[in-house]
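As the next step, I selected for study a record pairing a protein sequence with its backbone structure tokens, which the following lines show:
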Amino acid sequence: MGSSTPVAQGASRSRKVLLSVAAMAAAASIAGLGTYATFSSSTSASQPVSSGTVTIALGTAGGADNRLTIGASDVAPGDTIQRHVKLSNSGSLNLADIKLTTAATTSSLLDTDATNGLQMVIDKCVAGWVESLTTPYTYTCADLGGPTTVLASRAVIGSNLALSGLSATTAGANDSLRVTLTLPATADNTFQGKTSTVQYTFTGTQRAATSK
């Protein structure tokens, strides 16, 4: 009479398990409530950033602003070949410098002989070169004091040749240039019947990095 029956003992254990599960569920619920019960604040700002452009260009090939594509034939020792070209900075960035590389896409003694072969000089005219109507492709400059040399006389072929005093290093500016090639009077009979094609490549490099 005084001892518990197996059924009663089993029911008691079941009640304890259920209570334990209920207690764990309640604790988890309280913990969950604690996770979401926090204060918060946020703010934001939008900063637009756009990159600049480096763009240099020559005038329309063959036109008055780019005669570099027009060749010359029957050149004799002592002759000069003058061609006008307009160099423009149409990008949004100023440039640190503009350099010229010349290469012979068709090569001969005219370009490989650095002393007796073609020599090149480039001059700038602020007022703009005036092309002669009677003698094709010769030019005059109305600048006070005359034109400015941006590349001193040298052999026609060269790499990364620095061009000095150009306005086109400033965004939106341009330069009126006259490129003069000369076949020296010292060119001998070995230069007869030769053909070279000179390619001109102008390269602009962005200004130094700065704070924005």
